[in-house]
Every structure is written in C-alpha cells, then in structure tokens.
Phosphoserine aminotransferase
Amino acid sequence: MNEDFLLMIPGPIPVHPRIFRAMSMKIMPHRGEEFNKLFMEQSERMKKIFKTKNDVFLMAGSGTAAMDAAIANIIQPGDKVLCITSGKFGERFRDIVKAYKGTVVELKYEWGSSINIEDVKKALEKDPSIKAVTMVHNETSTGVRNPVAEIGKIVRSTKALLVVDTISSLGGDNIEVDNWGIDLCASGSQKCIGLPPGMCFISVSQRAWDVIEKTDGTCYYLNLKKYKNNKYKAPYTQPVSMTYGLKEALDIIDEYGLENWIKKHEKLAKATREAAKTLGLKLFPQDETTCSNTVTSIKVPEGIDGQELVKLMRENHGIIIAGGQDHLKGKIIRIGHMGSITKKEIIVTMACLQMTLKDLGYKTELAPILNPISKI
Amino acid sequence: MNEDFLLMIPGPIPVHPRIFRAMSMKIMPHRGEEFNKLFMEQSERMKKIFKTKNDVFLMAGSGTAAMDAAIANIIQPGDKVLCITSGKFGERFRDIVKAYKGTVVELKYEWGSSINIEDVKKALEKDPSIKAVTMVHNETSTGVRNPVAEIGKIVRSTKALLVVDTISSLGGDNIEVDNWGIDLCASGSQKCIGLPPGMCFISVSQRAWDVIEKTDGTCYYLNLKKYKNNKYKAPYTQPVSMTYGLKEALDIIDEYGLENWIKKHEKLAKATREAAKTLGLKLFPQDETTCSNTVTSIKVPEGIDGQELVKLMRENHGIIIAGGQDHLKGKIIRIGHMGSITKKEIIVTMACLQMTLKDLGYKTELAPILNPISKI
C-alpha cells in the first residue's frame, strides 16, 4: 500500500504513531482484573471529555452503533420523536427512529442552514407527547455546529429526552453534557479523540435511565441496561487493542489539556476559513458563526467541478479531502481538522487547494513561494 | 503494563506481530476506492473460510453483534425459534430471541453433554411453525463441538432457518456453511482468525434473505439489508485498522493453507487432551468424540480449588488459562489453542499445569526435566 498521502477528510483521521504503538501491546484477557481496571478507567476519563457525571459506556462498533443505542433503548413502536434535521446525520437519527417504529415529527432545515430555536419550542409546545428530541451537534455533512445548549434549555423544561450526536465534535469542540442537559450523547472514536474507527461512546443521564427502565424496546447487543448492570460495564468482549489506543489518546489529550486540545481545533478551523476566504471562496454554512470547529465546508466556485477538484488534490498532491454527500456531491468540499492534525497540514492543504483551483481555471494569484513549486 | 504473560484462554488470543504491524498502517479514507477494494476483497476471502458462496459481511462489533444481527433480521414478535442450548453461548442465542420478543422453544441439555439429533427432529416435527433453529458449533463454555452437519440436514428438510454461532471455531475447525445448510452463520475476529476483538462476520444464505425480506423487524445498525444494499457492503464507517489486520491474518492462513491451519488446531487440541489424560485428569465433555478443536475443557480434580489453580498458574508461571463460567466456576479449567498458538505454548502450559497441580497437593510424578525446574 502506498502510504504517501495526507488524510484531510472529516474522519477517520490520521492516527498518531503513539496510538498505533499502544494498540500493538499484547492482548490481555478481557475478563482479567488488569484489563477491566484499564477499561473502567478509560470510561471514567471519557466523562471528562463529555463534561458529565452521567454513566459513559465504551462499545465495540461504529459511531452509528451509539446513535442506534440512544434510540433503541428509549423508543417503543408509536413513540413520538422530534427529529431536527439539517444534514445527513440528523437524517440518520430520523431513520433510526423509523427503524424502531417510532413516530417521527421532523423539523427539517436546508443543509447548511441554522436551526431556529423558536421552531423547536413551538414543536414541543404543540405536542407534549413528544418523548425525545434528536439532533446533531456538529453536522459532518455540512460543517455546521448546531446550538445544543440553547435547545437543551428548552427540552429540559419538558418531559422529553435530548439525544445528541457528537461523533465529529467530541474532543474537538466544547461539549457540556450536564450543563446543556444532554440525556443521551452518542460519539465515536475516529474523529477528534484520535483513534481508528471501531469504538463508540455513549453517555446516559438519570432522566434517560428512568425512561429506559420503563421502555419495552427490542435490542440486545446495544441494550444499555446490560452495560449498566455488568460488573465491568461491558457485557460482551471489549475491543482490547482499541482500549489500549484510547488510553494513549486520552494521555495525549491530557498532555495538551482538554481545553488546549479544543483550542487547537478552533485555531485550525479559523486558519482554514481565513485561508479559504483569502482565496475568494465562500463557506458553505449560511451563517459563519455556526461554522464547525472540526470540519470546514467550502462552496466549490461556479464553473469548477468539485469532484474533479477532489480528484486532482489527490492525484497531483496526495492530499485527500472530502466532497459533498448526497445532493451536495460536486458542490462543496470538506476539510477535516481533527485529532492529530496540526497547522502544518492546514498550510499545505490550503496551498495545494489554491494550486489545484488555479489548474482548474480559477482566477487566483499564487504566493511567490508557491509560484515555482506549482510548476514542478 | 507487564507483558510477560502467556495468554491461553479461549479468546481473545495472542495476536501475531505481523497483524499488529499491518494494523499500524496509515488510515485510508473509508470511502475511497483503494480501501473499499481491500475491504471487499477480505469479505470475499472470508467466504473461503466459511466455505460458502453466500454473502459474507464484516461488521464493527463483538461476536455478539453478529449473533444479534442473525436474530434481529429474521424475528418479529411472536415468531417461534427452537433454541438448542448446552452452554453459555447457546443460552445467549435464546436470550437474543427473547430480546426481540420471539417465542423460545428451548431444547436444553446439561452443559458438557451432547445434542441428541432425534430430539431436534421431534421438536421440528411437533411444531412446523418454528421459523428458525439456533445452535452453537463450538461451545466455548464447555469445550464441546456440536453436530451442525447432522442438524443442518434435518433443518433443511423443513421451512426453518439454521442459525449457527461459529465464533470460537471459524478458521480453527472445519465449517461448511453451504454443505451443512447454515443460513446465518455468526462469527468473530478474536479467536482462530487471529485478530484482536472488535470485528464480527456473518454469512447470509438466499433462504435467509427470503425471510429477511418478509420480516418487519426492528434494527438499524445491525440491519443486514443495509449491508447488502450498500455499494461496498458496509453502510457505516468500517473498522479500517482491523481490516488491514484481517488481510494480514488471512495472508497468514493462506500461507499455511486453510486445511493445514485447521489441522494445526486439531493437533494442538489432541496434544492438550493427551497431556491432560496422562496427568490422570478427566476431560469435561461427556463424550470425548465431541471435544472441541479450539478449546480444551478439563475437570478440576476432587479436592482442588479450580479458581486457586487458575490463580497460581498466573502468579507462579505467568500463564493465563480460563476457569469455568456460571455454575462451572471452580469446577473446570479451559485452555484455548487458537490462532497463533503453537505446540510450544501447549508444552509449557501443560508442564506448568502439572507443577501447579502438584503444588496444590495433586499426586503426580513430574518429568525428570521438570523436577529441578519446579523448585526454582
């Protein structure tokens, strides 16, 4: 395999060599004291990342497994759920609710636009039987950060549970599960935490447990009660190597300090946005104040084929960025700045983006230093 | 972490350094052509291990996730399932059926005993509405191999689907999904395939698809239709590093040749059994011809505390073997011989077992070579 590429998509992300080394440690027995101590310690440490005193479980699975668990454990057929959608992953929650035969009340926004808090308030007032509200904190598909704190305040004044996907923001943006009133917070390993994909995380509030206890749902592998009641908070064989990796990843975050780790993401996001604007490009989110800390979504200029842009970035420069998903294919590009990514990678990515745009006929003046390089 | 131990439990198993190195390769974009080619190739190669032309899917999750998927996709509330149980994992299938509100018809055998084929025949004749039969090929909890081929013949003459757990035998014992008529075969990464835990496998027959298409079940992450319909047979982010590891693990198996890899397991099982019998120990399976190829289950001799035996094996010799589960705690020990384990590890394990038994008062004559070593 040719490993001479730079991965700049919004997850999975380049994994730090320290994490790979940790993951290569000898496999311990998953039911032994030593491993279970290590495992439980990491789930305790994850509470600090989630900023919560709630239970946090680590599971083997993709991030979607945690989203599924968040719904499967609280929904019986017919239960009403308000699903706020403004991108692919908001829609995923809606589809999960449907899979469990919940009744979806959809609050749908155009991809890239902001959520109107008043709409949420009205929807909840209109139908007090709504059992849960689902939303995405950081829409990976659009690069928009949604206002969880504000919506949490509204939801907390009702009986509904707040279910949030923080897969692409946890660790890379401020998330306050307890202060914001998130009852079920689903996240994943392969974004700002810095691990390969394959592990997911979920936090569960007491309010959520009260509902879970009364819900006669259908699930087994993702049954949260089994996790809670297990001595080691893990009823099935844990992903041992990923647990070693998580310890190392959390060590790295601790060395920075969580707030600095988040600030690093914030700076990289700002650098990416400012560089894009300097090139005359437009950000995809309608309101710049909603721009994500972890993925920057940029409109492809008129007359340029976005899929070609992504392809040439890879072929000519070995830089892998993401295009748009679903109806945004070819219309936007997305640059991830998560986990181990540093300013160096942003500089080279934005420089190569400019050169590639120029190659595609976009009018732009290369910096003196890039002028000769672009001809090599 | 102290890595000076030898892991001899029936999974997870010591992972070959080649696999760890492969897993340390740079993360590729999970939706890129190169990764998807690699991913699809491994699922094709897994078909050879399953000996099937059926679809085989690779999922992020523990083996239990594959067991769950095998049930969740075919069972609606009230559907009848014949669950053959003679150990912990047979019972797990029963519990999964209950979780999906299926009606369980249990054919229960004492742990360690064999399944009576005639009982299965009668149960199916008695109730033609039975939609599926669940069983475990290799009961990790008891060290018994169950007769899947024979039961398959009976089930195939009915309308029921045959659902089999091969988690602790796939790769280490002969499994013929097509010839035996297994409709849904669930397996995992961390046993005879040789990977760390965190990936699971499932094969799905056309007969199973016919039922799945008509079943109005409730699942999302584990919904097999979503896997089938996805262009890359993977609707959610794949465990990228585990996929690299799987390629390397299958390369290792190919270098041996699958039949030799299985024969290696068979030889180690025989070596373990013969050594145990030479020590005057009794095998736990009631019928020796049913002894597993991948885990050997041995009765703890009268007057000896099995939990103490396991503890001293670890403390005095750094060898980690497994005890009994549930009601067999303290009564049996289990030695795994899966994946990368060779005869060397069996020799040292059985030698240390003898020394430990002697330390606990068991009457046994150490080999001349062990006599001086045991005093050091």
Remarks:
- Chain B touches chain A through 62 residues (CB under 8 Å).
- DSSP finds 14 helices and 14 strands in chain B.
- The longest strand of chain B covers residues 55-60.
